[in-house]
């Protein structure tokens, strides 16, 4: 009860060890080590239990962060794991891939110069360590309701929905086109950020809870939506966003220009030994690579290219560093690993006749904030230049791309191409087809993993009420 | 008779009164007219203790109760041809001015008298002179007649008076139907009562009888009233028929209920059947009136008034180890049958046999007596109330706490307290009865068979969900209590909606707000004055008071009402009540409804009592499927009231086995509504589970620790209302209910204040049904909570992350647009406060903003709320002051002093606060204020004191507070010089003497009756009043106080405004409100509800970077706002005065926006315009069933009277003429700093003498600037209260005579010497020379008094040196510095809470070891070998005492110093080194 009130000042924030760049670029393993129990406890003890837990407020799933920090401080690992799972279905994954420096740790009161509590690393520690020590979700008192729900898409939204439903005694069956679960968690995020074993472990947990996976099954072709619709008590759609945003400039179809997602998936496939003709492996060894885009996908491409042995990687972004959407942590990891950043540069054209040879850029300056509050870049006249490149990766993000069977089943799609769940009369995340629910990127456009987790969980809660 | 009407938020039952009182009696029972003259002279000299109406002439009432002047009335009868029997009775009666009604009344009285077989001998019109009355009094002037009644000669005196009593009671009963104006003052063969709403000097002018030299009496009780109420009533003047009371009965509600509950058993055979004249104890009128009723009933039923009074107002016998066991048995026996009537009380009482004076257990009212050679004894609130030659004085003294002194007219002698006890204890074999009858539960016994059976995990969670227990509560409340044995402490205020406004399921307990004492009665310090507190609970049948027998002592005694598993099982075992209890299931089938379930429980309870079950066990422990529990509080209240109504309640006990009781408030509610004891099984089960999980240490006895924590909490809740004994708290319903519908009040909580309706049974039941669903759904996890700390999806918090971050952005960027975003977040939030249901209406069409008064005008109305340096970092404190000063608003120093380097520049706080700790309060501090604010209570913890933990007392804080670094500092719950409204008036007078230019402000907290208190405060001459809401912030406060005490300011402010307007006082005072004000709209609404000034606490703090972390009490505030840690202050504090300036400018600008929109040119146009408030329907069912009309009620408010303050200054009636003439005589000596010697005579009505001079000296030269050239002021006579208050260096006062209370309070330098006159016939060391609470908050200077001091000598002394020759209870309480020498006996509880300084006590009779409080201090002998320094020091002080006072005692001691030395104790804080006491003293000097 009585802890030292000034612990947070006297014990500075300390993140787990990180591999040095020279070593880590040689492999695809995660670059961060994990806390041991003592480190986790003392770092968790830095939390001052604010009257307003800003971390929890900023967290999209509203994790009970101060509470599990306290449990870790007290050494109650399993309780912490239970509590962590009360708000989050994939805490060990969020602990790894969330941009904490924009969310919980950014909001942390101690982020005023003292040093925010290392929430992400502790979150990761809790579940990793608990599983290692034998903890499993407690399903003892779940009574089977006899209901079953189909979940289309085994990404973070779908997995989270499955988790919540299983705990309520509703049997989830998850369909996915890919041979492994996780969606972008497995195929989009490079293994040096999220080791694929982590996803596998999660799969075992979920299966242990009674979640059934039907993989390598593309709904619409391998299995008709209507058959699923008829067979199950409700359906959840969490198919995500896979359609690339193109730059809309000349030269995008040149050889040597790659879309970010297939590039990343191809690389993971190679690692996992999966053959996938749609996402072939691209090797950028000894290439002079330019990555266009400053988001987290861009960073993933940067660092994958480095690991493939690219001779040079330039990352081009049209605003300044301050305004980058990517996690600051990933930007700095990229820099450490040898990526060069070209800020305030807008790509105008990809140069080359057959193969790419360079990228034409213009310098920009930031104009006044627009409606969204972000400052729009303006091109400075006469500042064009061409930088050399023999590979270009376009990482401008993704757009939702709902399968055809969606609209065929009276599920409304809105102007942005997303599934519409905005009706106030309906339950949260219920589509215009009352039996169908949706969440994640297919509903809101591409966003963070943790947002998809939140939506999947909320949708599942709606399904529970719907099935009552 | 009962004029019971309510209007708006005002209720006549809120009235409080207090006053000056006294008794003069001739021991030999020899009548003399002189006694009447002296009584009236004394009353005149106590004028300053009473109050005066707005007409300047009507008093709140005064009167005399005379021993019947027989020769006078015999003569009158003769002249009127009235034939009287040998024994006869006379009575005065107030009658209707209407002749017809009067005749009707008289005929009713006549027939009632004749029905008793008595003879009405005649009537006489009492000669009165109306011109003696003021306008207010004249308006309600009754017609006064006298009645003469005769009896048969053979009738005994007792029988005669009983018949008179019955006749009067029956007449009163009939008259309530006929004529509400009539009132029989008294009707007795022993005494007669003259009283009215006049000033004391007018009493004999009005009642010409009193002027008549032929009227001779042998004894007279007199009284002058200071009422908070101003709606005048003649009958409420005192004395009543038997007594006059100075103070307040805190327990009155409970006493009245219990009188009702016991009515069947409060019948004496002597009286016969009196069921037709119930209720005998009036449930309306003043508390004193009800007490008089009870005393009368007991006396008439055959008990002596001294015994009756001792039973009603016993001393604190439980913890008094020095009390004779026989007398203890007397008190203990009667405690089974009558709960104490407790509260600050000085009572003078009289019947045919005795005249007496009695003090309450805390001794909170002063009472001094003097016995002169003519065998007259005079007892009064003050000494020196009439002029007697000093050489005639035989004895002078004072009553101590719980003591009584009486004159026995039959035996013609004075009975002191011991003699009275001796008489009482021999009345019956009490000790034997108790020995045979009392049984105790063995708490050590651990019998495996009766140990708790733990619930399995799933059952436990389903119970926790059923009873809405959250993880937050488990951790913050239950575990905390069980681990630390303390209530959890938190900081900041409560920013969540009241339950009726909430959209979450809230506990029914949350609708209850604890009441607390402010101004009219003091809270108690339950920690430091533990000796007066008791939780002892008896389980048994309450007997018949007038027919006592051994059987009545058959009781089971438990030391607290919080039961353990073992105790409950023991009670239910065959050895105890195995067959004598009834089980009532609180659970009912879902298909039923709550109300019929409650009805079923009531009839089961009734049946049980009729079957003579000793207790009924209400239980929600055994929930079967499809059953839901009725809330234990609803059931307890309903059953309690049902049994009270039937007169059965005292025949059984209610024990509650429940899952709903978890924190001290829950227990307090259950007990407050009648529960005898509570068994919180769900807490024990939850603790067991936490221990199993390892969340709390299982080696600890968690249940026991939890109970200890709750016990402390209960003490705190009781002491907040000034109640010492749980027996008086039980059933007293000391709560305000906010947000329950009358259908619930009328069934379960009858008589509790509840003013705005709200939730119905169906709403509460719906909540429970939903909880039941959660309870049965395993996939729903235990809720996180969120009542205290913000949680997503939990309760709404007004200071939520969005509000805070937007505000901080706005003030940081100086961007008004961002402010508007913030204001929208606030103004459009879900309904969270009462004002959110109010919408301002325009007074005309919108006007252009340029026509609205400028920001600079509006800002003048803004103050920052009092936040002390100590709570805040110096950087934050100064940024706030600088910001406010640059703006033209005012910042408030808070309690804790101010560095003199800030006095003359923009870092100064214009408002200086004076709180109960008096830290840093000196004359110089006071003269550097524009406003002096007396903090009576604080929104976050009204009725409580505070503690600044040692780790927060760094060097700077210590210096400002005159304390030592690292030593914790305690602020007592009460101001020890304010136990009553006239005491507040005295403090205001003191302050106006020190600084006549400052305005005096009094800070109150909203609660029912705050308006009436405010009216009293205006009559005490305050210039400003602040009404704080419950949501005010705090640096540290128990969570249960943050959550459960105080009302919303909307209620308090509006009530105050209504009462002041109705009483034509609104123009005399500026009204401020504070509590959660955030935007211009808040300001506009507050103005419409009556505020003209606005206080902001949390808002400007947030502007300075506070993030509402609620860790202020830990000194680790990460934003550097509320910490003294250097690193945090220097590196992480980001606040700038500009942010404060932005904050207030934005709000003022926002106000202007609203003014323009509403068509008002200035804020003034909206003040008090409740007619411009439209009530919104609300968003939820509960909100929709609220009735907020009383808040905006404007009936009876005259439109043409001012709605805001128009007087600049509320000038006291007492012009302090003596002080002014002293000043003009000495002014040039002060100006030129040359000193000089001056002589004056003084009397008890010359108050605060010296303070005026100290103020001037401090203004011109500072606290110590005139130390080398002092003024010598020689005084002769009896000094009024506050002699030498706030004395500074350069003022040496020397008084020959004696002095009243508060000598040298706030003294910081100089010298006060008091010695008895040389022509005396008493020993100085046996005689009281100064009153109570002397040297309170003194920080320096010297006091020598050759005589005894009263209660609480040197309380909170932090630097003065004093020598006295004896002292009362609680000497050196909370002392933090200085030296006190007591050359004689001290009272109980010496040195409680003493953390600094030291004392020498001469202990000739070896009692001191039992008298001092062992918690913080230890005592040591002085031996010449090892303590040379102390020997020298003590001898030097004694020599100085001798030099100054010529004390014979000092001379004797010095003469034989070596042998006396071994009888002295050195008393010091345990933490201090014995060897370094003197050295550190020298360092301090």
- List segments of chain A where confidence is low: pLDDT < 50 over at least 5 consecutive residues: none
Query: Beta-sheet strand percentage of chain B?
Result: 15-25%
The helix tally of chain B amounts to 45
Counting DSSP E segments of at least 2 residues, the number of strands of chain B comes to 51
- Strand percentage of chain A lies at 15-25%
Tell me the Rg of chain B in angstroms. 32 Å
Q: Summarize the main sheet of chain B.
A: 10 strands, mixed
The amount of helix of chain A comes to: 25-40%
Q: Main β-sheet of chain A: number of strands, strand sense, barrel status? A: 5 strands, parallel
Oligomeric state, counting identical vs distinct chains: heterodimer
Shape of chain A: globular
How would you characterize the overall build of this protein?
The complex is a heterodimer of chains A (468) and B (1485). Chain A is α/β, with parallel strands linked by helices. Chain A is 35% helix and 16% strand. Chain A has 19 helices and 16 strands. In chain A, α6 (77-87) packs across α9 (119-132) and α7 runs antiparallel to α9. In chain B, α24 packs antiparallel against α25 (816-827) and α39 packs parallel to α40 (1251-1261). Classes of the chains: A alpha/beta (468), B alpha/beta (1485). The interface between A and B is large, with 35 and 43 residues.
